[in-house]
## 1
Amino acid sequence: MSINLKQNDLSHVVAADRHHVWHHLSQHKHYETADPRVFVEGRGLKLWDANGREYLDGVSGGVWTVNVGYGRESIANAVRDQLVKLNYYAGAAGNVPGALFAAKLIEKMPGLTRVYYSNSGSEANEKAYKMVRQIAARHHGGRKWKVLYRERDYHGTTIGTLATSGQPQRADQYGPYPDGFVMVPHCLEYRKQWDVENYGERAANAIEEVILREGPDTVGAIVLEPVTAGGGVITPPEGYWQRVQEICRKYDILLHIDEVVCGLGRTGTWFGYQQYDIQPDIVTMAKGVASGYAAISCTVTTERVFDMFKDTPQDGMSYFRDISTFGGCTAGPVAALENMRIIEDEGLLENTAMMGERTFANLRALMEKHKVIGDVRGKGLFCGAELVADRTTKEPLEEKLVQAVVADCLAQGVIIGATNRSLHGGLNNTLCLSPALVATSEDIDQITGAIDTALAKLSV
Ligand code: PMP
């Protein structure tokens, strides 16, 4: 059955949603007096809701996902053809799109060789943490089992990945958490923690301090977002990544880059880490891998990491003791293959870099006009504007005012985001833009124009 609704059926859909769907990240009290927004159709960056209202989506499906835009028939067709041929087989056996996508992906990731499939960003990161623990058990006498993570970064919603949440409001109320996950300071220069000239190097040295405090022989890996997403769209300062890499090599610590948001083109290169000329040991990705046309995530490793799961004379037969049931779905890799083809054939990396420049130029112009913009950050089509009540003190703008800007844009038919709601204050003050990589100059101008109009209404 395909779902083809007439306009008057849609009121039933909205009622069904209102009474029976438990929405993500939602305060449901709101729906006691208002209908939830239910989207019906999308094309490119455009969306239509159940009332027939049109929107320009400036956040690629809410959470930086639909990189190639809505309504891609070629992806739908590729998935359909694959599903009627073979939809699934799990475990040790392979499948055609899984093999072809892994090979294609690896072409874009020099130095990495192995792709482990699962379904969500959280799951991909959990796999990486399990790899680190198993490597510690097999090769380091149980030591080197700890994973460092960074303040303000986010890596997922499971208990294991929440143990690496650098955003306390996400993790509060779900503990206690497993041991062995240790936080390092964030590197956002706009909110300086050290008054030094070479901030990038200083922020990276803070990682070394934690390693020395914990004991280098207990630390197996560090997980970092290349550009922090939900924690405030944070581009690390000059020199940060080189120093991080040096530190990892010095103490034999695996560098795990979480590309769940940046992966597959968001920053204008295939991966965010490629903006910084570093060589990770583990890379995880999810959202943009198939642009939300199917669920797929990958934990990609070097051959050196992979080799650590091979037999040894000491412990005989060995392997990574993990499975993901839906890692055997073929819809994910076949959608991902077509997604990659689109990015390549349509020159979307180049477009992202170009449109990113335009977005930053527009935002910087808005900064001249609106004192409430304290900082503009990001890479490619992954842009943030931090809002402050006072530029000198950098006091974050009140959450309700940040939300008022988001709501005003929505009323103008433009969807933008703001970083996560915080119980601790200070995080939810960055407006986020992450339109699909097919965005045109007109789209960008419409999005930043809506922000301009919304900011003009703020009386700060
Ligand atoms: N890592 C990062 C950087 C993310 O932003 C997210 C999701 N917002 C995740 C991991 C978790 O991904 P998922 O929701 O697919 O589990």
## 2
Amino acid sequence: MIRCGQPFTAQPATARVLGGWRHFTVLTLRRRGLAGQASGRAVELRAVLDRRVRPVVPLADLNNPRLWQPGWQPVVRPASMQVIPAIDLLDGQCVRLHQGDYGQVTRFSDDPVAQALRWQDQGAQRLHLVDLDGARTGLPANDAVVKAIVTALAIPVQLGGGIRTAERAEELLAYGLERVILGTAALERPDLVEVLAARHPGRIVVGIDAREGRVATRGWIEASDTLATDLARRLSALPIAAIISTDIGTDGTLAGPNLEALRAMAEASRVPVIASGGVGTLEHLLSLLAVAALGVEGVIVGRALYDGSVDLAEAVQAVGEGRLQDPPGLAFA
Ligand code: AMZ
């Protein structure tokens, strides 16, 4: 039995007997299920305002995000991080750049579809695509490959690079991409983010690429004076799905993520932050769990997966949902 003191808010379905929204604390986590209920495990809750009330709910119910009041966290869910493999496309090939420098290209595969399938087979829950030609020139150059990847994969795919108009974003969403990422446009045309986010809530992501804390655009060739945290603060007021926070100084270096910058971005943002840049080892991924509670819910990994310094399946088991190292009694169903 595990006792947890923190409060949370649950919707009526969680505590059907009571109705309405109520605050609860988790009193115990029962290993045995309730007779006649599907879930193998159940949680005993204590109502904060009326301590005589003690509903028991199947763990599967408690794990349903729709039953939680926005802004409150489930108390027994351990910090976890979605590991998102990246495929950067340049001229139809799968490459990595060093610190975003188009002069320092390493080619990893000339079959990006096969590569994408490998990441899916190894446990990826989402794929991150970048059209590097598009990011640099604003003109799409890898659509055939993008379409082929979306068609071949069962997991959701997000794409950034060169999306500067509503028409282009709509076209990509129509290909079946789960989400599109606006970087340059987010800085130069915030109105576009506003329009698209209203039209496609949950499908627009803002990519904030920062060099020493200031936003860079157009394939990271142009610098700006805008602080990454200011842009995050402004745009996260819109119904966007997430902010991808890329630290250019560490990207492609395997030197470790910039935890300080991530903490600042997570504190500035009202939507989940996805970390990008610098992951070189499993320890780096584990270190990111320190900022998970602040709202950093995923991490994009590129070069480390290609050169084998991080094994995707192992990484997913170490920091993904249902992490191997958590005691089974604590894991949500
Ligand atoms: O590596 C680069 N030089 C690079 C890169 N990876 N330049 C841009 N991008 C990515 C951003 C973001 O996901 O991290 O392209 C997207 C932004 O593109 P745009 O065209 O909207 O600024």
